[in-house]
Design goal:
Strand content: under 5%
Number of strands: 0
Shape: globular
Distance between the termini: 38 Å
Largest sheet: none
Helix content: over 70%
Number of domains: 1
Order of helices and strands: HHHHH
């Protein structure tokens, strides 16, 4: 019985490593296209012709995004991230009990960037896209970043319900002292 459970976890892990990158690329393409459509439909020009000083801030935004992303992956493997995202998505779609930890293989990680922001991956992605918008001066990237920000906050709502169900008081104490999306330099969590 124990061996079957381990085989099932490994099968799910393999599925997540194949499906999640495809799903993430599809979501990115969808929001990129939607951002482009909104730009066209609203009549906002493709380029805002920002001065070089403002566009230079894009390098800083991208650096911050990549810094948080790389920092996060020091504490959490990409495969674990893809697997937990897949399992959370499965639970939401199949309406499985949120406190079902039978398929989980990773602990709650509250180190590194998670000391400053509860969802460093989502913050990083939005910061990188905003940086690209500033550097390349393509307006649809601004819309894409805004739409992803809204989407991520919807996803966070469901993820945090699951994390509270799985990790109970530990996660609630953490959530009450660390910001959800935008990092704080205070690093309140120990």
């Amino acid at each position: 019985m124990m061996e079957d459970n381990e085989k099932k976890k490994m099968r799910i892990r393999k599925q997540s490593l194949i499906l999640m990158p495809l799903i993430l690329v599809a979501v990115a393409c969808f929001f990129c296209s939607l951002g482009y459509f909104i730009m066209i439909a609203s009549g906002i020009p493709d380029h805002l012709h920002m001065p070089p000083e403002i566009r230079g801030l894009g390098i800083i935004m991208m650096a911050i995004g990549f810094f948080f992303l790389c920092w996060m992956f020091r504490y959490r493997k990409l495969s674990d991230f893809l697997n937990s995202t897949y399992l959370s998505m499965q639970k939401t779609l199949m309406r499985t009990r949120l406190d079902d930890a039978s398929k989980r293989i990773e602990p709650l990680i509250l180190q590194g960037p998670q000391k400053h922001v509860r969802h460093p991956t989502y913050f990083s992605i939005v910061a990188i896209i905003l940086g690209l918008w500033l550097i390349l001066d393509h307006t649809f990237l601004l819309f894409m970043a805004f739409l992803l920000f809204l989407w991520f906050n919807l996803v966070i709502y469901f993820e945090e319900k699951e994390l509270k169900a799985l990790y109970k008081g530990e996660y609630e104490a953490y959530a009450s002292s660390v910001p959800r999306f935008f990092p704080s330099l205070k690093g309140k969590w120990h």
